[in-house]
Amino acid sequence: MDLIVIVGPTAVGKTKLSIEVTKAFDGEIISGDAMQFYKGLDIGTAKASKAEQTQVKHHLLDILEPTESFSVVEYQKLVREKITEIKLKNKTPILVGGSGLYVQSIIEDYQFKGAKRDKDNDYLNMSLDLLQNKLKQKNPKLYEQIDIENKRRVIRALEKDDDDIQVERKPYYDNYYIIGLNTNREKLYERINNRVDDMIKSGLIDEVKTLYDQNIRSQSIKAIGYKELYQYFDGDISLDESIRLIKRNSRRYAKRQLTWFRNKMNVEWFESHIENFNQTIDEVMKQIKKKLNQ
Questions:
Q1: The CATH number of domain 3-114+161-292, selected from 1.10.1060.10, 3.40.50.1110, 3.40.50.300, 3.40.30.10
Q2: How many CB atoms lie within 10 A of CB 242?
Q3: Could you read off the pLDDT of 270-280 as tens digits, one per residue?
């Protein structure tokens, strides 16, 4: 098999499943979560812990400084090189993440043709609310799919040109398998809320304060969990309100992730049995073995 892919909404158990699958099938993990590329953004991005990273090889974690930018084009090139490198070692590449466009750019024949966008335009001077309203009127479908709390992505969506990305909607690899994890909305939202509470207890506020004190105002801190706490440190909202917004924005993001994966990818879905996750692992392992024997 050329590639195993594990996708799903935030907080559904992708990291835990991916480690077990990687152990079982002698693989190496490639991150498909855009914000996990950044150094220092650990707790808020739910990055695999150092202990988890020692269990199996992980690629593309901590490859960027928080001030650096990284495009889907660069990601596509780097990941396809990593996949080739891993396969040459007779190991299985396992792409894991929740950033739909990044993952899809690998498994499908995405060809980026457009010229670089002119950043010095009127959109940059508009408020996020105005940009969101413009996008909703211009392209309601795209409005439902992207992270509308991310100003840069809203601007890109407004600037979107069909010539920028040419996709023939055909697989790039001959033999790959996409595993999707999900659970019912009530359980997922409860899990998201609890995970945010755990992040706060684990030191998220201090993590974000470190970035804030370095006066980092780049795109990396627009990630959920960071932008809300920046508002708190700026004195615009209370700490309780920032935590409430992190939970709300995380739930909304999970909904958009599911919409993307359901509409854009040929995913085989598995129930994430939160109370008995070993059952989920067993079900996924059984199906992978079946696929390998076909």
A1: 3.40.50.300
A2: 21
A3: 999 989 999 99
